[in-house]
Amino acid sequence: MRVYKSHHPDVHIPDTTVSQLVMDGISTRLSDPVLIDGHSGRSVTGAELADGIRRFAGGLLSRGLGSGAVTAILLPNIPEFATVFHGIAWAGGTATPMNAAYTAPEIRHQLQASGARLAVTIPPLLGQLEEAIPGTGVEEIVVIGDSGDHTSLEDFFGEPVEAQMPADPATHLVSLPYSSGTTGLPKGVMLTHRNLVANICQADAFLKVQPGEVTLGVLPYFHIYGKMILNLYLARGGAHVTMMRFDLEQALQLIQDHRMKMLYVVPPIVLGLAKHPMVDKFDLSSVEGVLSGAAPLGADLGRACAGRIGCRALQGYGMTEASPVTHLIPRDDEHHGSAGLVVPNVECRIISAQTGADVEPGEEGELLVRGPNVMTGYLNNPDATAKTLDADGWLHTGDVARVDDEGYFFVVDRVKELIKYKGFQVAPAEIEALLVTHPAVADVAVIGRPDDESGEVPMAVIQPTPDMDKVTLAELQDFLSTRTAKYKQIQDLRYVEAIPKSASGKILRRVLRDELLEPEPA
User: Fold this and answer.
1) What is the CATH number of domain 419-516?
2) Residues whose CB is less than 8 angstroms from the CB of residue 431 and which lie 6 or more positions away in sequence, other chains included
3) What are the pLDDT digits (tens) for 243-298?
């Protein structure tokens, strides 16, 4: 067995909860802002955040929502996200963060699958949450802002809970994000306190966040990448300036005003930093590094961004099932096009997809990872867990990678069928299941079409229903608009006589990609 380990020595992982780790971090900034609302400028000090966490935990416990109870979080990036998430953890409960772009059917699926009994949201998202509630176990909705007939955050708060409620860091489920994994529909990823604490320590070995350091909270906190950066900065005595939605001009202004050193982004934001003329109007001289994750960053785009701003363009790799980071380019390094070096306490293998045997260095194969940050499995889904997680702890990422002589990993292709659109995961099977219900669609496959700005965009390949007019792209987009989140919307359409399938009936997406996305002759 050929196992790759980090060049960096293993780091100590404290036997504590993620909420206690964050509480320890913000205790060093009791009088200083740890969260700043980028839109309004409203700030939350360490003392205010700690008090909010304790009081939210008190409200949960007064309603019997402690250990084992699941609370859904449907929030954009606002300071209260940290209050709610860590209040749940402080009370010994489990948080299931939901994509703020979800439609009611998608919200309902996660509420039902997770067994959530409480949901927290804001007024603009309340409508789709209310529509999703029937048929779920949600007993109460807490609204941050104008609550109407529902419970306000202030009314929900209870007596402060001074100490972390008992929780075994190694086994206690604290976060339940939903991910499509390597294939299929979203599944609940069971992450323990130890998983999240481990990844904070592993990432910080390379990122070295300094006390008082401020960064931009633009990555969605419901996404594991955004939540890890949020927790990392809070735990290390840093601060976040939150953005409910990305706006380049506002982001540039905040970076300039707060003299940010490190930015954590996705490739479309890197593209804006590299090419948008607006960038020249702002002083970004404080920026030392831009770290891109969630989707591959091309070497040329990384170089263009670094040259434009005068900083390092870095990259990381991971997945929700690994809390998420397994590879990073260190903060003081640069290696364009690479997904990074193995982070401490993680082991990697690269195996042949055909034989399962380890390949030679430099050869391509499926990337496997193992470490204390790897999930315990998928909630109530032993079959999916067994397909992704080996009995000896190896997590199959579904990505094809290679490693060079210096230990830098490169993700070169995908075994899994997920489409990566602007850092979001789009499961083809989920969209296919919706499109095939359209009367003009006899059969359908969804594949990712490469796109310079977005990474990939979802493309529908349609086998038309005989004797019916071919459905147009606009008609299919309208059909999907109320059924799925906007980022899952198809953006291209092709027609074929038949969808190619294997003998077992599985769609042969690689055949479609080869036939339909073949480069034009020179």
Assistant:
1) 3.30.300.30
2) 446, 458, 460, 480, 484, 488, 490
3) 999 999 999 999 999 999 999 998 888 888 998 999 999 999 999 999 998 877 87
